[in-house]
Amino acid sequence: MIVVYGIDQHLNPIKKDLSDAIHHCMMSVLGMPEDKRAHRFMPMHADDFFYPGGRSNKYTVIEINMMEGRQKDTIKALIYKLFEELEQRLALSPVDVEITIKQQPPHCWGFRGMTGDDVNDLKYQVKV
């Protein structure tokens, strides 16, 4: 599950392209399948979205929640790939992008009527 926050005037026009760029990175670095896209966009009014100095109104926060198991180098590769793709595809400066990756144990995930540690038919590897 990926949640993206930003100022509505900037985020709304780029949601589709941003989702495509993020998913491309998830597929290329983590091996996620094409149909495994769970993105939520949270466009916010500028009065409700405070961000650090030195950023523009394009400041975008990306929270990636996934099952535990990815290696440190894999996570770092994903972060760097996201910075690169977002700058190339959407002209989002790395200074205007904040990425947080949260990994939870599989037993903390619930989907399709079971927990993540009970599922045995994932079409992708978690331990990469």
Automatic annotation (TrEMBL):
Pfam family, one: Tautomerase_2
Taxonomic superkingdom: Bacteria
PANTHER family: TAUTOMERASE YOLI-RELATED
Protein name per UniProt: Tautomerase family protein
Naturally occurring in which organism (per UniProt): BD1-7 clade bacterium
